[in-house]
Write a structure and sequence with these properties.
The model has no long low-confidence stretch (mean pLDDT 87). It is built from four helices and 15 strands. It has two domains: 120 residues, no CATH class; 128 residues, no CATH class. The protein is globular, with a radius of gyration of 23 Å. A hairpin with a 2-residue loop joins strand 6 and strand 7.
Length: 260
């Protein structure tokens, strides 16, 4: 992103104004958004350099649009936005349509959608991958050790009107092979929940992750380094969501099952 700066001014009870800047690789967009839970109004514009202006707590919730999840049922305030964005090889738009409302097939509308222009330019896509390596590693965490399996894939993407691309991808999954049946058994590694919503405040877990290798991540070029990448990702998530010495609740009660 290049840099990110934010200035926040609290004004009275639960009211504030904030300005945030980001660049130089910000996704091109123009956004006007309202969010009723925090009574937030936000405007943002980005063409390489982005600026976000937010006004929180000034507008009464009764002024926000509402939505009912059942016919004739209670109506609840909902988010709305006017936006035009360009990212992921596509052009995206939303002209004052609720994402929750439009998620129902019957409510699809031209006022919210996308046009994938890069798919049209590249033409028909053919994707293939071939397994080239598979190894297991033991990763240490504060509460004990976990077994993971690293799978290396050679990926090839072919297009009708675009050059063929080749890359290495890694899949790292936590678990083990059952000694009797030989079947893979998932054993997810605990991590603190994100805490962004009421449903993800509790403890979470990671089963597996997939990520690119060379040429995108040139430094992750062996199964051992892929396993370390997974371990570092888990430790970083634990530190960001909890602390650098975060421990699972089950471990505190000596109930966690750890692969030895």
């Amino acid at each position: 992103m290049g840099f990110n700066k934010r200035k926040w001014w609290p004004i009275g009870d639960n009211k504030s104004i904030s300005i945030e800047t980001a660049g130089w690789k910000s996704t091109p967009h123009i956004i006007f958004e309202i969010e009723p839970e925090e009574r937030k109004v936000m405007f943002s514009i980005a063409f390489g350099f982005a600026i976000y202006i937010s006004i929180n707590g000034f507008i009464p919730r009764s002024w926000f649009p509402t939505m009912s999840y059942t016919k004739g049922g209670t109506r609840y305030p909902e988010e709305r936005s006017l936006s035009i964005k360009i990212h992921g090889g596509a052009f995206w738009w939303n002209f004052w349509v609720s994402e929750q409302w439009s998620s129902y097939c019957a409510n699809k509308t031209w006022r919210m959608g996308s046009f994938h222009y890069m798919d049209k330019i590249k033409g028909k896509h053919d994707y293939q991958r071939k397994e080239t390596d598979r190894r297991q590693f033991i990763l240490p965490f504060l509460e004990g050790i976990y077994n993971v399996e690293v799978i290396n894939w050679a990926r090839t993407d072919k297009y009708a009107h675009w050059p063929t691309s080749r890359m290495t991808t890694w899949e790292v999954r936590a678990g083990y092979y059952d000694e009797e049946t030989g079947e893979w058994k998932d054993k997810p590694i605990p991590v603190e929940g994100k805490g962004e919503n009421s449903y993800d405040c509790d403890e979470d877990a990671t089963w597996s992750i997939s990520f690119p290798g060379p040429p995108y991540k040139k430094d992750v070029n062996t199964p051992y380094l892929a396993a370390l990448y997974f371990w570092h990702s888990m430790m970083r998530s634990r530190e960001q969501r909890g602390s650098e010495r975060w421990l699972p609740e089950k471990f505190k009660d000596r109930k966690i099952e750890v692969i030895k």
